[in-house]
Amino acid sequence: MSDAVLLDAIWNADTVYRPDLFAGKTALVSGGGSGIGRATALLLARLGARVVITGRTQEKLDRVVAYAASRGVTLHGFAANVREHEQVLALYERVEAEVGLPDVLINSAGGQFPQPAIEFSPKGWNAVVSNNLNSTWFMMQRAAQRWRDTQRPGSIVNVIVVTERGMPGVAHTVAARAGIVGATRTVAVEWAPLNIRINCVAPGLTASEGLAVYPPEAVAEFPRANPMKRPGTPLEIAQACVFLAAPSASFITGEVLTVDGGGKLWGELWLAGRPDYYRD
Ligand SMILES: CCCCCCCCCCC/C=C/C(=O)SCCNC(=O)CCNC(=O)[C@H](O)C(C)(C)COP(=O)(O)OP(=O)(O)OC[C@H]1O[C@@H](n2cnc3c(N)ncnc32)[C@H](O)[C@@H]1OP(=O)(O)O
Ligand SMILES: NC(=O)C1=CN([C@@H]2O[C@H](COP(=O)(O)OP(=O)(O)OC[C@H]3O[C@@H](n4cnc5c(N)ncnc54)[C@H](OP(=O)(O)O)[C@@H]3O)[C@@H](O)[C@H]2O)C=CC1
């Protein structure tokens, strides 16, 4: 499916949310140049939010900004590598100066490479931990600091992966995201007095650009990943992110919402290919 068709599908899809749900609110979405982050950013924009997207590649952000402009909506695309703390601080300064302090933070930036865990190099492990644990932490801590300093409430949604069952081929990312779950649960308590809610969405296999890093033999088996025998769509994950970010979740904090078509209950996913041992 071409980018234009994909974006139109997201823009025109039915949603249960009312069109002014985020009117007057500002949202910052990391990983907003593609996949789940992009779908979430566009959905938030449809619901009236001022939206800033970030990611490392300015051209990807520009394409989303241009699409929104073609629909009469202003999005802002500010490039940053969110695993660099200094860049996160600079990003928040720019967002506040040019758009306004976000009310909502969606952390969708992340990624890993598939490899049997026994082969991980220290550098590879560190890259994935940095890209998924440190980056999300830097973004959420800065948001909380700014909300504390300005005495404003806020809501954070961290997009993670399913951590409650084996996910062969991506042990590094599961470890990093389990760290985010732990941090989320803990700061949900520490930050409740600041009027900050924080939750996670754990997508199952989702048909995004990100799946391009997986080998053909893994992709061939993707239909076995869950009882619905299909990947989720970025918009299906986006709807869950919006639910948790919005007042629909006003009494929910420190939670993980799994959106995986039942993949936690049944399914097989061999992201680095299926070892012979598991063939019968
Ligand atoms: C069973 C049913 C359960 C239901 C639930 C299912 C849930 C499924 C969830 C799992 C599927 C997840 C999917 C997604 O997340 S899609 C979105 C993913 N997007 C990406 O992954 C982006 C692509 N990846 C990357 O950009 C990079 O891999 C990464 C960001 C992680 C690292 O980039 P960085 O630039 O920091 O690092 P380098 O490229 O310089 O590499 C550093 C070292 O890392 C090692 N490495 C890197 N790539 C590989 C590789 N392909 N294979 C092996 N090792 C690799 C290596 O040591 C690098 O150092 P050197 O280059 O010096 O060797
Ligand atoms: N698709 C799936 O099946 C699943 C995805 N997830 C998770 O959901 C999230 C979104 O993934 P998805 O949309 O599918 O994949 P994408 O690869 O499309 O999205 C990831 C985005 O994150 C950005 N990004 C990555 N690293 C950084 C960084 N250091 N700083 C800033 N931006 C960064 C990328 O942009 P750029 O490269 O330009 O920086 C990219 O736009 C990820 O955390 C992913 O691991 C979880 C479970 C399943």
Automatic annotation (TrEMBL):
<keyword id="KW-0576">Peroxisome</keyword>
<keyword id="KW-0521">NADP</keyword>
<keyword id="KW-0443">Lipid metabolism</keyword>
<dbReference type="GO" id="GO:0019166">
    <property type="term" value="F:trans-2-enoyl-CoA reductase (NADPH) activity"/>
</dbReference>
<comment type="similarity">
    <text>Belongs to the short-chain dehydrogenases/reductases (SDR) family.</text>
</comment>
<dbReference type="InterPro" id="IPR002347">
    <property type="entry name" value="SDR_fam"/>
</dbReference>
<keyword id="KW-0276">Fatty acid metabolism</keyword>
<keyword id="KW-0275">Fatty acid biosynthesis</keyword>
<keyword id="KW-0597">Phosphoprotein</keyword>
<dbReference type="InterPro" id="IPR036291">
    <property type="entry name" value="NAD(P)-bd_dom_sf"/>
</dbReference>
<comment type="subunit">
    <text>Interacts with PEX5, probably required to target it into peroxisomes.</text>
</comment>
<dbReference type="GO" id="GO:0006633">
    <property type="term" value="P:fatty acid biosynthetic process"/>
</dbReference>
<dbReference type="Pfam" id="PF13561">
    <property type="entry name" value="adh_short_C2"/>
</dbReference>
<protein>
    <recommendedName>
        <fullName>Peroxisomal trans-2-enoyl-CoA reductase</fullName>
        <ecNumber>1.3.1.38</ecNumber>
    </recommendedName>
</protein>
<dbReference type="InterPro" id="IPR052388">
    <property type="entry name" value="Peroxisomal_t2-enoyl-CoA_red"/>
</dbReference>
<keyword id="KW-0560">Oxidoreductase</keyword>
<comment type="function">
    <text>Participates in chain elongation of fatty acids. Catalyzes the reduction of trans-2-enoyl-CoAs of varying chain lengths from 6:1 to 16:1, having maximum activity with 10:1 CoA. Has no 2,4-dienoyl-CoA reductase activity.</text>
</comment>
<keyword id="KW-0444">Lipid biosynthesis</keyword>
<comment type="pathway">
    <text>Lipid metabolism.</text>
</comment>
